[in-house]
Amino acid sequence: MFRTFAPLKLSIRKFRIAxxxxxxxxVFIMTPVLSEDQMAExxxxxxxxxxxxxxxxxxxxxxxxxxxAYPIQKKSTGYYHTMEFKVVGEEIAKMELLLKRDxxxxxxxxxxxxxxxxxxxxxxxxxxxxxxxxxNEETEEAVEEKTEEKTEEKSTITDNKxxxxxxxEPITAEN
Length: 175
Fold this sequence. Notes:
Blueprint: H1 6-18, E1 21-30, H2 36-52, E2 56-72, E3 75-88, H3 90-101, E4 105-112, H4 115-167
Antiparallel strand pairs: 1-3, 1-4, 2-3
């Protein structure tokens, strides 16, 4: 009769889970006192960290300088940056440790994406590409339509004012 060792099975299972590549999204806020070069250097540092861990960066976006909801380290603004990447789960702990120690980073959030979040992000990126390519023509047409509607509304408003003003009776001492 063989006895199985539960701790051994558990450690093998943990090893397999740790070796699985998952998709993550990292959003971090950098201090506003950084120059453009320092910001780019900081972003490259974490992108390099992902690549060194044999990961793949899927999407990267800089949101720029934004106002914070509440002060963090006596700062009311910060540079937001987001990265979406695939990497082995063990590397996230190392990356978060470096983010905690980095004085340039005010806050960060790392989220493991499930299949629904991945599909949503893909759809969002495709929609942004479509609006960037063909969106200018549509927006010009929409602007023209809106200006036509506004001029029609203004003419209707002036017509209504004339009708209302025409029906007014002069105020006399008798009324």
